[in-house]
Amino acid sequence: MYNCVMDDTLNKDDIERAARAIREADRVCCLTGAGISAESGIPTFRGKDGFWAGRRAEDLATPRAFAADPEDVWAFYLWRRQLLADKVPNAGHTALADIERSVDHFTLVTQNVDGLHRRAGSERMIEIHGNLLLDRCTACGVEVMRTFDDVSDEIPYCDACGAMMRPGVVWFGEMLKPKDLYGAQAAAEASDVMLVVGTSSLVQPAASLSFWAKSNGATVIEVNPDATPLTAAADICFPHGAGAVLPAIASRVFD
Ligand code: BV8
Ligand code: ZN
Questions:
Q1: Has residue 57 got a pLDDT over 90?
Q2: Which among 93, 139, 181, 187 has most CB atoms closer than 10 A?
Q3: What percent of the chain has a predicted confidence (pLDDT) above 70?
């Protein structure tokens, strides 16, 4: 029995419909965004606290910003790494990991770079925008996964070729890794249920995954307190936080 305290504002019939759709699905794809980590205390991109030193994250997460002032952008990512160091997965992350264990073909596609899904136990997942603790060489592409204890205050240099390292994330204006993008597209297009949690559905190509799933006949379930460009196309909408909705759904998937 999955222990979950039902939030009495949730629509119980919709919870039941969503759980049944997942239970009966052969393939489930889940797309998450910054909103699922909001309840772990991590600022979302477009929320009121999505700024750093008065500037928008989106203006700093670009190759142009890094080329113009690598130290400035490095300091931004260092701040985000330090912010993340004492954060833990919340009930929404944990519920997704539990649902993954009860579904034969479950693929989690996350836009988040905070690593909280993996720490919550998710395994079959694609981090399509990279990972905050990954450093990548600007020249030879060598990647080094850091721990919170060995992140460098200064920009590190590649052990293999001596070139400057950079954060191992996908910046605005950069291509996603083809294997990640194709894996995510395949999972979305093959899904019977597309669970979309905590994303404004504004960033491409991630946001298109939900519409591709829909056009291939998937039942689209959206979990987001705010309306998004996906809301009108979703089959079931939960205008609530992921931390309440996902455990409620998970508790009914198992019963
Ligand atoms: C690409 C890693 C093509 C970095 C991120 C000009 C040139 C090239 C491309 C473009 C261009 N103009 C536009 C584009 C496309 C661009 C794009 O989509 N821009 C947007 C802003 C319009 N996309 C790209 O650049 C992508 N690459 O297109 O390449 C190309 C082709 C040829 C040659 C070269 C390139 C790359 C996009 C990846 C960018 N990197 N992250 C880092 O983290 O520092 S994206 C960044 O945004 C994060 O990953 C974040 O997750 C993601 C999406 O945002 P959300 O996750 O949705 O977060 P947001 O704050 O927006 O929303 C949170 C939601 O949660 C809200 O709706 C809120 O209501 C909800 N919420 C709040 N609390 C809760 C909650 N929900 C549930 N529970 C709660 N408790
Ligand atoms: Zn190198």
A1: no
A2: 93
A3: 96
Question: Residue 52: beta bridge partners?
Answer: 55
Answer for the pair 15, 188: CB distance below 8 angstroms, yes or no.
Answer: no
- In whole angstroms, what is the distance from residue 118 CA to residue 10 CA? 27
Mean pLDDT computed over 42-54: 81
Could you give the domains of the chain?
Answer: 1-41+88-129+176-255 (3.40.50.1220), 43-86+130-169 (3.30.1600.10)
Q: What share of the chain is helix, strand, coil (3-state, %, to 5)?
A: 40, 20, 40
Measured in Å, residue 148 CA sits from the centre of ligand 1 at: 24
Strand order in the sheet with 130-137: 143-145, 130-137, 165-169
**Ligand located closest to 166 CA:** 2
Residue 207 in contact with ligand 1 by CB distance below 6 A: no
* pLDDT above 90: percentage of residues in the chain: 87
Where in the sequence numbering do the catalytic residues fall? 129
Question: Which residue is it, tokens 């700093």?
Answer: 60
For the chain, the straight-line distance linking the first and the last C-alpha, in angstroms and rounded, comes to 7
CA 149–ligand 2 middle distance (angstroms):
22
Mean pLDDT of 175-191: 98
